[in-house]
Amino acid sequence: MPDIARDPAFLKRRRLRRIGFGIVAVVVVVGASLALARMEPAPPTADADTLLIDDVKRGPFTRQVRGPGTLVPEDTRWIPATTEGRIERIQLQPGAIVTAESVILELSNPQVEQEALNARLLLRSAEAQLESLRVQYANDLLTLESQFATLEAEYEQARLDADTQEALAKQQLASEIDRRQARLRADTFAKRLQIEEKRLAATRGSLETRLSVPRAAVDQARAVAQLNDERLQSLRVRAGFGGVLQVVPVEVGQRVGPGTNLARVADPGRLKAALQISETQAKDIEVGQMAEIDTRSAVIQGRVTRKDPAAANGTVTVDVIPTEPLPRGAVPDLSVDGTIQLERLDNVLYVSRPSLAQENSAVGLFRLAGGGRDAERVRVAFGRASVSSIVVVSGLAEGDRVILSDMSQYDAFDTVRLR
Hints:
Elongation Factor Tu (Ef-tu), domain 3, alpha+beta
């Protein structure tokens, strides 16, 4: 069949129609793309059952800090070696109950034993010499006293003779020469008696002075003997006070020098909690503040008695003395938790402490909205903090419900839908 020529006007209309359809399609695609680009992403969804949610409250607020620690004895004493020696015998092992006189271990040192023996012999020699001099001086004094008594008798006899001659001379029965000789002899004995009396008194007074030198030698020898005896006795190492033997860090046969720690004894009846508090939280702790000690079996009230002035490994050691009896089973080195009461604030806005909230900081929290179906991000400023609560400065109102859990995975969103 021969070809039929088409009408050029029809072809032109059909081409224009196709072009129009193409333009419309392009416009629709571009419009849809722009609309999709301008649409906000759908909020993510979180499971409300897995989130920690709390209400913002108003009322009294107690600031606290908490830290782990251990129970340690208030009175702990290391027993050092006072002399060099060799460990011969360990009589008691850690855990034993000891008294002040309990012998924990024994040392040996032949040199100390010999020096103690020599010191005792020197003391005996000095005491014997002192006693010998005391006897000698006593005999000398007795001799002087005997001579004085003899002279006193001779004086009495001479005085009687002089008196007799005086009486006879008055009756002219004796010559004047005999009377004068008798009187002279009596006066001579009187002067000698005075001299001997002074000599005797001086000898008596100097007796203690003459004995002071040998007596000082005895005192010196006694002090040396006592010192060496104490060194000898120190070879038997005693506890020094009642308690529990905790550590014996030496072995039989080991040689130790002066100052070496041989044992540690503690009083188990007087324990305190040594808490390790973060240095950022310890700045407000003061001696006298009240505290609680959690021994896992009971919570005991206590009081802060010491705060270490220096931090170590990021923590500060704080000592808490119990003000109540500790429960049974509370022993040294028991792990405990301590809570210290810093201060009490009245009528403040506070909430349970969110996971990322720090004292005097501002963070973004999700606050529940829409009847609890959604959570929207708000900027919250915090003030002072406690162990489990923190003061709200701004951003929240009383009664608001906020999510405390870590929501960092939703940092790109301002709204989260809860299910």
